[in-house]
């Protein structure tokens, strides 16, 4: 009986110990101990932009809005900005990196506006046909069901 009482007193201590381990990151959570060196990151990001600019010179400027033409270059650019942010102990994306990336987008993709589709109704002849066909089929099916239900002697 005394052993159970001892275990009951040890249980809260054990729970507090496990909670402490999980809070400290024992469960696999990684805590960022270094502060973000924003000036280092802002110093290194232009190299990523320069590299992207050099690669984009290989692509015809008329094809800059076609992502399939430069997707690998953009992927390299994204990885470069992420690597430089991480090297400066900053998370990615962060407001400063996003501002830099937005500047690159303005430089290369400002003319790539998406064309909005203007929806129009079809001509009246087609619209009337598209409306009347389901209505007529519904009426025909109702008529068939009523007719078959009255002629139960055949079925």
Automatic annotation (TrEMBL):
What PANTHER family does the record tag this protein with? Answer: RECEPTOR ACTIVITY MODIFYING PROTEIN RAMP, RECEPTOR ACTIVITY-MODIFYING PROTEIN 3
Recorded topology in the membrane? Single-pass type I membrane protein
GO terms for CC?
cell surface; plasma membrane; receptor complex
Q: Where are the transmembrane segments?
A: 12-29, 126-148
For this UniProt record, give its keywords in alphabetical order, as a comma-separated list: Cell membrane, Disulfide bond, Glycoprotein, Membrane, Receptor, Signal, Transmembrane, Transmembrane helix, Transport
What name does this protein carry? Receptor activity-modifying protein 3
Q: Any idea which GO molecular function terms this record carries?
A: coreceptor activity
| Single GO BP term | protein localization to plasma membrane
In the record, the note on similarity to other proteins reads: Belongs to the RAMP family.
Q: Which organism is it from?
A: Irena cyanogastra
